[in-house]
Amino acid sequence: MQLLSAAQWIEGTCNNPMLPLRVCRNQRNNAVTWIRQLAGKPADSPIQANNVTMVVGSLLDFQAVLREELNISDTYIVAQKAHYSTTTLVESGELMFPDEIRNELPTEAVYDIKQGARCFAFELPTAAGFHFLRAIEAVIHKFYDVLSNNARRPNRAAMGIYIDELIKLNANPDLVATLRQIKDLHRNPIIHPDETLDMIEAQMLMGIMQSAVFAMIQIVKNKQKLLAPTPALVSPPPSPSP
């Protein structure tokens, strides 16, 4: 078990997407192969001296090349942002939403939320804000689809046009007002090259995005419940004749 754990550690270290290692790939494969061959022997089988020599030699080769590769690898320390886990922001930003909300998000919204969270973690606030606003627009499209019973979408995908259509569909006026405020105060300015965000503004925009997305998805879920077909009543079987 110790040998297998060592092989798994070597593979996991070299395949970690946070720090991809390439130069030591051959030495890694050689070391893991020898370790697994030795670990695959029957428990009562004696370990020969040449087996130990090959395993130790392959590990020393791997260690030497790994050390050299790490010396030239690009590594960074990312400071934690507010109360957010850095690993979660970098790898799974969509987890800022609970399961019941996340499962209803359109694919393109999930993509932009993940990218926005990653940009926020790496202190690229303007890029983060851009992705968060794209995520809001993606959810607006789904919001429109559900409220309109999948009517044809507007010819232009501009956020303002969708907001006007949501008004015609009698969408929640407070939510519509919030979406219009997001468009006017955040979405429209950020598309101009002379507009940039700082980290505080990006964090506030992330919170605005979470609130707007949560509100729209909650309405979507309630609407879908109302439209769900009612299960047919099953008549009980007739009583047997006496």
Tell me about this structure.
- The protein contains ten helices and no strands.
- The longest helix has 29 residues, at about 200-225.
- It is flat, with a radius of gyration of 28 Å.
- It has two domains: about 1-70; about 85-225, Four Helix Bundle (Hemerythrin (Met), subunit A) (Up-down Bundle).
- The protein has about 240 residues and is mainly α.
- Helix 1 (about 1-15) runs antiparallel to helix 2 (about 25-40), helix 2 (about 25-40) packs antiparallel against helix 3 (about 50-70) and helix 6 runs antiparallel to helix 7 (about 125-145).
- Helix content is about 65%, strand content about 0%.
| CATH C-level class of the largest domain | Mainly Alpha
Q: Note the run of SSEs as H and E.
A: HHHHHHHHHH
Question: What is the count of β-strands?
Answer: 0
Which CATH-level-2 architecture of the largest domain? Up-down Bundle
N-to-C span: 68 Å
Instruction: List the quaternary state of the chains.
Output: single chain
State the shape: flat
Structural class comes to mainly alpha
Features:
242 residues, Four Helix Bundle (Hemerythrin (Met), subunit A), mainly alpha, 65% helix, 2 domains, 10 helices
Short description:
By secondary structure, the protein is mainly alpha-helical. It has helices spanning 2-14, 25-39, 49-72, 86-91, 99-102, 107-121, 125-147, 159-168, 173-190, 199-227.
